Structures are given as C-alpha cells and as structure tokens.
Automatic annotation (TrEMBL), chains A, B:
Its main location: cytoplasm. One of its GO terms (cellular component) is cytoplasm. The keyword Transferase applies. It comes from Halomicronema hongdechloris C2206. Pfam families: FA_synthesis (PF02504). PANTHER family: FATTY ACID/PHOSPHOLIPID SYNTHESIS PROTEIN PLSX, PHOSPHATE ACYLTRANSFERASE. Signal peptide: none annotated. It catalyses: a fatty acyl-[ACP] + phosphate = an acyl phosphate + holo-[ACP]. Its EC number is 2.3.1.274. Homodimer. Probably interacts with PlsY. This is Phosphate acyltransferase. Belongs to the PlsX family.
Length: 344, 344
C-alpha cells in the first residue's frame, strides 16, 4: 500500500459537532495530508454545514442515512439502521473501497460495526479499544488498552493487546523504541491479581513485546511507558476517571483563581497561560481511541471533537495505513509461535 | 464507651516526618479533642523532636524499638521486629489499653499488624483499606474501598465492604444519609465484569446498604456518592492514579503559569489562591486510610503527613471509638441474615 494514497472513510455524522466540524477537519486533511477522503453521511446536511461547499469537490461523498445516537444500544441500533453512517463507512473498508474509518460517533457502536462488518484479525481472540492519553512529559503520550471492549479477560487477551499495542505505538504513534507496561498494583512480578501475575510472566517471555515491567496507577501518566495494557474493566474506569479529574481540576481553577480583586486581575494577566494549561489537562483535546484487532483500521475520535481532533484522527488512520499495521499484526501471529496461554 | 474518653495509640515513628510532626499533631489532639494519647515510639527521639518537651507530660509514652520502613516487606519485618512501634501500638488495643491506632507509617505493615495482632471482626471475610478522597464539591469527600488489601475478590467481600463503608461513612465521616455506589463501567445493572454484575444484585437486595447504583470512573469524585466499593486491584490503581494526577496537574501549573513577564506578575498576585488550589487538589493533605473489618480501630495517615493530617486522623479515630463502629458492624452481622453469596 505504501506507494498509493491512503483512502479514509470519514463518518461525517458522528459526534457532537457533526457534520460541520467533521467536514472542516476532513477538508483540511485532504489538503495537507495527501489522503483521499470518502465523506459518509447525509449529502444535504453536509452541504448545508459547509461554509464553502466548493471545497467538497475534492472529497468523495458517500450517502448514508442516519447515525447511532450516543444513548442507543449499539448492536440493535446497527441492525435496525443498516444504512447508518458508521455501517456504511465500515462497508467501504470491507469492499476495499477505503483503507480506514474515522468516526467521532458512539465508540461502542463503532466497535460493534467493525466486528460485524470486518471481523477480527487472524490470531486475535478479542479486539481492544486503545486510548491515547497525554503524560506529564509534554509531547509524550501513552496508549492504554483495553479501555472498555473486554471486561473479563483471559491472560492471552492481554498478551495480544501488548503485541498490538507495540505495533501501533511504533508505526502509528511513531515511537521508535516503545516500552510496554502491565497495569498492576506493585512493581514486583509476584504482585497483583491472578490475571496480572500470569500476564506478567507471558509478557516477559514474549519476544514481540518490549516489556519493561509493571506500571502502577502512579506510573501510567509518568511518560515512562509508551503502552500500558490492562483489562477493559480497569481501563474503562481509569479512562473515565482521568477525563473527570481533568474537568474537576479545571473547575477548581475557574472557581478559585478569580477570587478577590487581586485574583481577578492576576487571572486576566494569565489568560494565555491558562489556555495552554487547559490544553494540556483537557483530555478531550487529545488523541482518540484506536480499535485494535479488527480486520480494518478504525480511529474513534472523542465525541466532543472539533476539526483539529478530526484532522488528527485522520492523520493517525493514514499512519496506520501507510505503515501497514494490520499486515504487521498478522505477520506477528504467523511467524511467532505464541506461548500457549495456560488455563485455556 | 460513649461516656469515657477515647484512648488513641499514636505510632510516633511512622511516616516521612516522624516523630516531630506526629508528636505535634498528637499534642494538639490531646488539647483540643478530649482524647487520651498513648505515644508509641523511641522516647529519646520523641523528646529530641519536641520543641517544648513539657507538652509531652499530658501524653503517655509507650516505648517501642524501631519501625517498619516503607520499602520493607510487611509480614517478615513485623515478625522480625516484634517491638516495632506499629506492633506495640496494635498490642495496646489488643490488651484493651487503647481503643484505636493512628499511624502514618507503612500502610501494608499496619494492615498486616492489625490482622496478626487483632484479627478480623466476626462475619467479615476480608478486611479492606478505605481511602478518603476529596470530591469536586468542596467539603464533601468520598470513601473508596478496597484500595489494595484484596486483589482478587468474591462478590460477598464487596458486599461486606459496602456494609462497613455505610457504617464508617455515617458514624466516622459524619454523613447522615450516606449513598453507596459500586464502581463499574456503566449505569445499568447488566453492565460490568462478572464480579460487578453479581455484586450489583447483592447490594440491591441488602437492607443494610443504601445502594444507589453503579458509579462510573467519572462519577467517583462527583460528590454524588459517599462510598464507592470496588475490588482492591481496581481501587489501588485508582488511588495511585489519582495521587499522581493531582501532582501532575500541580506540576503543569508550576510550569505554565509563570511563563512570560505577565505570567510571572499574575502568578505573584495569585499566590494565596494557588495555595487554596493546591490544598483542594493535593491528595496528601486529605484524609487517610481506614482499616475496616479488623477487630480494632485503625486510621492510617498518608506517609507524607504533617501535624494537621495526624490531628485529623486522630479525630477520625475518636469518632470511630465514640460512635462504636466496631460494635455496629458486629451488630449488623448478628441481626441481618446476609444473602448467601452464590459461587461460594
């Protein structure tokens, strides 16, 4: 694929600011990234939301009807709405008309649509959702997976997450020598619940995983790890907790900083600095979620995404296509004899 | 007990700022709270660290030799050092010379010493460590348990955590009508891993638990729940993550706020407001950990505790003694026929 242009199917109808912000991000990506965009959604709404509709000429419009709302149950809604934008986008990948999907819609629906339409990669028992978090080191992020697709995991699922996380970190997030950690409650290999103790040993023995040890809660955002694997229950709790803590801190700042006359004056002076702080703290402005292990590339942007996040998500999708991550994961499972998971 | 003065054994040697800050906190507690203090530690070091040794006359000194360092393995160290301050303090409770223990030392060692010396309460399968977190609502906290004592839990353990958490919230933390939540990845009763689904149903059916439903990661610090129960693996990850996030945010503030000339000037003007923000964000200044389910009252203050935290921990211990929480937990397990845990 390397030599051809990546073709990205963008779900124009997914997210709080769809279609306007999605379309803006997609138009910019087309202009700057050298990708082909297939914009999936309701053409009337897309045209109405585009200030300069002439820009749409560069994009291919693929009609779809409706979308899956955030409060809808994924599976039944996907079945009831076969022409929903996320279904149509996944079908484009299935029919090899596109190489990847980008959506800011319902992440559970996107995962379910990917599974129903594209299926799993060979060798992968359970796909995972990976979330990219900022760390305390500016410009360094950490990929955490699984953040919610699999709430009860066997050891080998986490081992597969680690293999896929390594490949995504290297080829999509651009980390040359990624370091992989296992979320746990202590540093020693004997620490943790049954699952963690068993996974620790498997990761140590797997040559495809540059495992550097356990990551405690306090290490997750330290910048020391490029990838942290965990089961989807813990990962989801952590993801939602992190988002809420970010918001909570910003609320405390808003409440306390302007207290008193000096507070008001000082806060005025600090406006640009506070904006930078908000950007660093606010998870919504960062990355997005990657679906790993489905037989297609899919990047799920945050529901509150505006054009820059959509642009960024398209960039991630392009990296994944250009660097052939799916083929690399497949190759891993053909050449490496995976250590058999005990208890299986 | 209600009419008599609570007798609190204070581990003078535990924590980063022991014995000086511990002694200062204990002296203040003696003066202000109407409690009797048994100060456990090395008398020479205690006297040397006390600016006005005359203040020690009001306290009873109980000699001990050594302490368990933060990097020591709890069980073997406790056995090797029978006269370590935490062992001596627990023994005072065992011999009914004290009603409660307060320590800022190694929390794992405190838990192990409590189990070895005092044992479990009748009806409690596994004691838990409860941590008090600040919430986004000023002056409202949330008790999270277990944060690390039990990494693999059966459903009935979490049910017992909920019963004990309810009693501690009401009688120690002073919440008249506590609301209890189960840490989970969705609101619906069907959501979660096997453990969460089963515990959800047990909590709904338990009349001793004012259960209001699942708490997602984003709800933990919302102030909506007074108690959140979870297994010790997830709880420990969350606790350490929360502490690190607090520090990370304060670091970002320190880095970004004073950028540029206006930034420096504005930051100067905001000094008192920033101090308040630090207090609200910094977990170390809050609560501490409660050991729930052991046959004695124990409050573990943060290792970095200074005198105000020690004072606060002694106040919590006094509340627990005055309100007879152990007797209340026991009563719960004598009068309520607990629903049998399936899978046992």
């Amino acid at each position: 694929m390397g030599a051809t242009r990546a073709r990205i199917a963008v779900d124009a109808m997914g997210g709080d600011h769809a279609p306007a912000e999605v379309v803006t991000g997609a138009i910019r990506a087309k202009a700057e990234l050298g990708v082909d965009i297939l914009l999936v959604g309701d053409p009337d709404q897309i045209y109405a939301a585009t200030p300069q509709p002439g820009n749409l000429d560069q994009l291919e419009l693929v009609p779809a009807e409706g979308t899956i709302a955030m409060d809808e149950e994924p599976l039944s809604s996907l079945r009831r709405k076969p022409k929903a934008s996320i279904n149509v986008a996944m079908d484009l990948v299935k029919r090899k008309r596109a190489d990847a999907v980008v959506s800011a819609g319902h992440s559970g629906a996107a995962m379910a649509a990917a599974l129903l339409r594209l299926g799993r990669l060979k060798g992968i028992d359970r796909p995972a959702i990976g979330a990219v978090f900022p760390t305390v080191i500016a410009d360094k992020s950490v990929l955490i997976l699984d953040v919610g697709a699999n709430v009860d995991c066997r050891p080998k699922f986490l081992e597969q997450f680690a293999v896929m996380g390594t490949i995504y970190s290297r080829y999509v997030l651009g980390v040359e020598q990624p370091t992989i950690g296992l979320l746990n409650i202590g540093e020693e290999s004997s620490k943790g619940n049954d699952l963690a103790v068993r996974v620790h040993q498997m990761l140590q023995e797997n040559p495809a995983v540059p495992f550097i040890g356990n990551a405690e809660g306090r290490d997750v955002l330290s910048g020391q790890f490029d990838v942290v694997v965990c089961d989807g229950f813990v990962g989801n709790v952590l993801l939602k907790f992190a988002e809420a803590v970010g918001e909570a801190v910003l609320n405390i700042l808003r409440e306390e900083l302007p207290q008193g006359l000096r507070g008001k004056a000082g806060t005025m002076m600090l406006k640009p600095n506070l904006r930078r702080i908000k950007q660093r703290v606010d998870h919504a402005e960062h990355g997005g979620a990657l679906l790993l292990g489905v037989a297609g590339i899919a990047v799920i942007s945050h529901g509150s995404s505006q054009a820059p996040s959509i642009f960024n998500a398209i960039r991630l999708a392009k990296e994944a296509v250009d660097h052939e991550v799916l083929q690399r994961i497949q190759a891993q499972y053909q050449k490496v004899a995976m250590p058999a998971a005990d208890g299986e």
